[in-house]
Amino acid sequence: xxxxxxxxxxxxxxxxxxxxxxxxxxxxxxxxxRQARLETWQRWxxxxxxxxxxxxxxxxxxxxxxxxxxxxxxRRTPFEFEIxxxxxxxxxxxxxxxxxxxxxxxxxxxxxxxxxxxxxAVIGHLxxxxxHGDHAPGNTGGVLVYDTLIPLVMIxxxxxxxxxxxxxxxxxxxxx
Length: 176
Hints:
The protein has about 180 residues and is an all-alpha fold. It is built from 7 helices and no strands. The protein has helices at about 5-10, 15-25, 35-65, 65-70, 80-95, 105-130, 140-170.
């Protein structure tokens, strides 16, 4: 595989990060407040990055299991079917996090839930890379960035919302 082909294949997961960032930047150009901008960023990250990215992985692992196995440097196993449905769960969580009724606490929880799966995947990819020399495009590169950033940014944005909300509340005098 030539370098350009390898780079294109390993960078594909980054497309979903680009969708989220581009969408959020366009939608927040004229936002009236920090809260409105933050809400927009959270929704775009939840739908564009976690939701659509995970849905794409679901479709890919169900519809092209041989291609996906080759992309990650494995032979085909029932593992692809399981990964497809784990990603479907992440997509549903992403759609929930994008809801206008989702609270910051719920978004932190969704980010943590996504992190347990995706950060575990990062550890697995790194293990395959260093212990077994697996440099397949679906095992190194973009997937490592994607799997690390999705939950990290979701949690950071939701925590920021919690801090902004806390500073906007009027102080309540303590009863002594």
